[in-house]
Structure formats: C-alpha cells, structure tokens
Write a structure and sequence with these properties.
2 strands; 46% helix; 132 residues; Aldolase_TIM; Nitronate monooxygenase domain-containing protein; mainly alpha; TIM Barrel; 6 helices
C-alpha cells in the first residue's frame, strides 16, 4: 500500500513522481540488493539498473560498491526534485494497477467499496457444511 499512498494528492512527493507512477506498469520495478541478502523492490531506472549490473558481476557486489548509488540522500532528492532517474526509490509491483492520483479520502472509500464487493463475491462461493 506504500506505493499506492505515494500516489495521492496529499502525498508530499513531487508531482512528476506521482505521474511517473501512473504511467508505469508492473514491469517497471526491479529487485536490488539480492546479493547483499537485503532484497528491495525499487523503480527501474538508470541508477537501479546500474546497481543490478554491479550485483551481476562475477563475485557480486559489496555494499561499498553501491553505497553512493543507493544513498538515502539521492533517494530523497527524487521525491523533492521530481527526477525519477536521480536515485533509487521504492515502488511495489502494484505500480501497474495505479491509474489515478486520488485524495486519501477517495482512495480509502474506493478500497472499502472494493473489499466489500470482493468479500461478498467470496461469500457467495463458500458452501456451508451440513451438520449430518
């Protein structure tokens, strides 16, 4: 739900990043830090693909090899400046299902309605067992 709430009116991140999320598909994320045993899913951009390339080298990568690329300061600038290629930034695979930038109130109302509908559909297929 983090990626979904990033893409709301109230989210303090730059509008360019919100629009990038809306324009993206589930194929626009990538895992990094696998060789460091600290896997994270992030938006696929120049920086994250450079990290992946370093990790795929023979012998993998050490954190020192990627430290500058993945610094929190660079990631923060992505959200502040709106440049999606400036650093790594978290993005879940749900990114492919996000197609709007609602208010939090509207998002929660939609989630509630959708959950009620899905639970209702599930209840229709549940068969109660006989007492016999």
């Amino acid at each position: 739900m983090g990626t979904r709430f990033m893409c709301t009116v109230e989210s303090p991140i730059h509008q360019n990043i919100k629009e990038k999320i809306v324009a993206s598909s589930e194929a626009d994320t990538v895992h990094i830090f696998r060789t460091l045993h600290n896997t994270a899913r992030v938006f696929k951009n120049k920086v994250s693909m450079e990290v992946v390339a370093l990790e795929r080298r023979p012998g993998g990568a050490k954190f020192e090899d990627v430290r500058e690329l993945v610094s929190g300061a660079r990631g923060r600038k992505v959200y502040e400046l709106g440049d999606p290629d400036y650093g790594i930034w978290s993005a879940g695979i749900v990114i492919g299902l996000i197609n709007d930038i609602p208010t939090c109130k509207d998002l929660l109302a939609t989630l509630e309605r959708d959950v009620e509908e899905i639970v209702g559909q599930m209840n229709a297929v549940v068969v109660t067992k006989s007492k016999l």
